[in-house]
Amino acid sequence: MIYYRDVVPDLAKRFNDFAQSFDTGAPLYSQFARRVANERTVLDLMSVAPVSQRIPVLLFASAHYLLLDERSHELAQHYPNIAHEKGSGVATDLFVAFVLERADAMKELLANRSTQTNEISRCNWFLFPCAMLDAELGPLAQVDVGSSAGLNQLFPKISYDLRPGGLIGNNTSLTIACNITGEPPIPRQVPNVKWSMGLDTKPIDVRNDVEVRWLEACVWPDQVERFERLQQAISLARLHNIEVERGDAVDDVAQAVDRAAQHGHPVVTTSWVMNYLAPDRRIAFVDELNRVGSELDLSWIIAESPYETPELPGHSGSDEIITVITLVTWRKGQRNVQRLATTHPHGHWIHWGN
């Protein structure tokens, strides 16, 4: 009784809120969310998920994951990233039936998976600050914390269509666009990153088709271009043999930075990952980088929401939900915090300046 009185109403509200927020940007998931909010049998499935992951997108990603392996199912005809033409039947009815008929498989995913969106357009966030660091210090070495499949490590290996600014980079297989306002320091070429590694508690191996399917499942099906761009990025990551190691953000970052420092100026990057740490772990992460920065020159590029991560440098006292790009540097033991820009959560645009 406690579960249904307290947890289900809270979940129902989350799904209703999701439906209202994404009615335009994600109409299919918005329809599903509105229906699921009134389906106790579906909400009940989420009781197996960790409390922090009892969110609509985990349910949707789990169903999407199963559907990508059952593309002939009638429901798949309503997913724009799978089918070119909309199928028959009521999408919400098909979704509820699909989920409940696969309750065991859904519970397995909900209990053990977490949302791991690895959006390649977020590489836009690292282009400008890394170009600044390259000009200051020369070759760089990246440690991407919360790296998922490590696609952010591709940022020096792809091309950018900056608007304004023009084309930067020579990669013809993957180019990402970025609309710019303000006056960022437009680089003439991509930064020189000689070495990189990813760190994640549950890394995704881009060479494993089953793991890649989960990464694809975390993309919202209405966002067809994003889905296709992800597939291009995965192919490129396989080509460059991108590596992500299993490790803890707080406990293992110092060792990773030490390794990076052997190859170039160490640059830690975090993008929409600190919000998944508890507040005390965020504080511990900042303390650990402060300790490391007192011993060697270090830079940290933060792309996070101040509202979600008030413990991070430059975020105190701010309630901004928007993503903010901040550059934290340690030089000869002295720390400096510089707010650079605000940006779209998936990197489609950047406004340089406050």
Strand order of the largest sheet: 3-2-4-11-10-9-8-7-1-5-6
Structural class: alpha/beta
Percent strand equals 15-25%
Number of domains: 2
Alpha plus pi helix count: 11
Given as residue ranges, the uncertain stretches (5+ residues, pLDDT < 50) are: 1-5
- Biggest sheet architecture: 11 strands, mixed
- The string of secondary-structure elements, in order, is HHHHHHHEEEEEHHEHEHEEEE
Summary, kept brief:
With 354 residues, the protein is α/β, with parallel strands linked by helices.
Describe the structure.
This protein is of the alpha/beta class and 354 residues long. It is built from 11 helices and 11 strands. It folds into 2 domains: 2-112, no CATH class; 120-352, no CATH class. 38% of the residues lie in helices and 19% in strands. Strands 3-2-4-11-10-9-8-7-1-5-6 form an 11-stranded mixed β-sheet, sandwiched between helices. Helix 2 (27-36) crosses helix 5 and helix 10 packs parallel to helix 11. The longest helix has 20 residues, at 2-21. The termini are far apart. 42% of the residues are buried.
Question: What are the main properties of this structure?
Answer:
single chain; alpha/beta; 354 residues; 11 strands; 11-stranded mixed sheet
